[in-house]
């Protein structure tokens, strides 16, 4: 049975206000991958620690999550983790290889492979929950803590391909050629995603984001038939907790309406589509998040001001037309060679415009 936990006052947090249709005290901003290689303090603390090792160290997770809040004054902290963490916790043999990303030792491509996958139990992500507890004692009352999980389709893509892919040919081969096996795998991964999000919500996060990073590789028809039912179950299972749900994918301009229909409170928008156009596509029932091109942060302060002014104008037009709110973010994650000062300047600019 779903229980709703008492948590920090939502109206204190600009991000939660914007996500729920209230008036924020200032324009909320956070950046995907704001904790990472763009920060010298991150590079120092991770110098001799592997990515997955770091993700299962509660003290390290809490410290890395706090770093961009201290440096940049963002309105949210996103839990330092990786979308494959719940798979690793559930026993999948994988590693995150520098310069490559997640690599699966034995790709999942047969019914026997799917049947061999284990469930995720809450105690297997105890370090993540412990990190959330630490963060809730450190974060300012106005800064929201965002938990997240990879969506079932994106997790399936990694498992089937064995790592990152440009074509997703093995994934689509199973999806289109063996729908029964596909839905069995997706059902399992939906359970994993729900368990991971529930654990974070029970530990006290203020919002959650579902990353369907690779959904943009699909047609709308394929998304509706093979992905949407499972994403809908994820969102329905966490709806009763009373925390805002954010849904985001890359290259999903043509899927925004479908991704919104699965059930979300905020839809993330990448840089390929204007925010006000995106808001028209998804209707006026959900807030919008985005959508600065991450490369703009490499191009100098004049470019950043120009692009942010345009994006904020688009967001304001959307809100004026009835969209509940706008959360400023990038259209994907901070690039590793971005100067930390450029991010700090962008946050200051967003709060001042």
UniProtKB/TrEMBL annotation:
InterPro entries in the cross-refs: UROD/MetE-like_sf (IPR038071), Uroporphyrinogen_deCO2ase_HemE (IPR006361), Uroporphyrinogen_deCOase (IPR000257)
GO biological process, alphabetically ordered: protoporphyrinogen IX biosynthetic process
Function: Catalyzes the decarboxylation of four acetate groups of uroporphyrinogen-III to yield coproporphyrinogen-III.
GO cellular component: cytosol
Site (Transition state stabilizer): 82
PANTHER family attached to this UniProt entry: METHYLTETRAHYDROFOLATE:HOMOCYSTEINE METHYLTRANSFERASE RELATED, UROPORPHYRINOGEN DECARBOXYLASE
Top-level taxon of the source organism: Bacteria
Location of the Uroporphyrinogen decarboxylase (URO-D) domain: 28-37, 146-162
Reactions accelerated catalytically: uroporphyrinogen III + 4 H(+) = coproporphyrinogen III + 4 CO2
Keywords: Cytoplasm, Decarboxylase, Lyase, Porphyrin biosynthesis
Pathway: Porphyrin-containing compound metabolism; protoporphyrin-IX biosynthesis; coproporphyrinogen-III from 5-aminolevulinate: step 4/4
Name of the protein: Uroporphyrinogen decarboxylase
Assembly and oligomerization: Homodimer.
Similarity-based family: Belongs to the uroporphyrinogen decarboxylase family.
Enzyme Commission identifier(s): 4.1.1.37
Subcellular location: Cytoplasm
Pfam families named among the record's database cross-references: URO-D
Residues that bind substrate: 33-37, 82, 158, 213, 332
GO molecular function: uroporphyrinogen decarboxylase activity
